[in-house]
Amino acid sequence: MDYLLGLFSRLTGNEALARLLFVGAIGLSTVLAVVTIIMLLLGLQDPMQRRLALIKRGSFGSAAGPEAPGNLQLLLERVGQHFGSSDTEQASATQLLLMHAGYRSPSAVQVYWAIRLLFPLMMLGLGLLVFPLIHGLSLIAGLLLLILVAGIAWLAPGMYVSKCKQLRQRRLRAAFPDALDLMVVCVESGLALPTTIERVAEEMAVSQVELAEELALVNAQIRAGITSTEALKQLAVRTGLDDVQGLVSLLAQSIRFGTSVAETLRIYADEFRDRRTQAAEEMGAKIGTKLIFPLIFCLWPSFFLIAIGPAMIGVFQAFGTP
Q1: What share of the chain is helix, strand, coil (3-state, %, to 5)?
Q2: What pLDDT was estimated at residue 25?
Q3: Where are the domains of the chain?
């Protein structure tokens, strides 16, 4: 408090005016915060407003059901709708990024933008509470730290989603060859492509949950009336993998021209396995380069200490003062 009063005093040059401005700022901020929270909570707890929010969201079931969102999620969705990006291309790119990261909820974009907005504000408020406790911190340094904290808080959700996307695509890419092998076995045994996808999804439900969910969604779309080619194209869009896109193109050509689907799957499985082997060999070839820095900073100092240390001690003893 004394730190903030000192800041106001330095800005105004009058201690009485600084105290008045300080009390007024705290009172206005408290009133605005309380009024905003009360209005949002009342709007979400009102049965009619909550029902309208559920209808807009697409949840037509009972508000008390296990799948119904809570007040916090509806609050984030409402904040995201008001303050989210209005650019269609940017919203589409954000939705695609969240889809690749595994967030396929209709309200994922709104929640994402709400978190990106509220998280920096929360960190700014926390910084305003913590920085006055740090002694010797100047006004310029405090402002720079606040800007830095707000920038990191703004970038953190995007970095987290991008990391989730990379990890999910890595798991899907690692599980894809096994799924292709199972598809080859099922197709050669006489099963149709939709039945094959369903069976592979059931077999991989324990070991590879994410790929099993994607294949189950493809099978559900085919049963709903979407063509196999279109359902596979949507699978490629949801995963964001070039390898899946190549498989979709080959299967679409096989279905269109009537060629053997089993042969297509076998050829692509062998090619995909070769790609995985080449990727592993590439990673192995990079190990020598990556070990340079651990060798320099960890092993070589110890080696020089053991090899040259006794000689240096002998030199110091020989030329030192008795």
Answers
A1: 85, 0, 15
A2: 66
A3: 1-49+88-167, 168-276
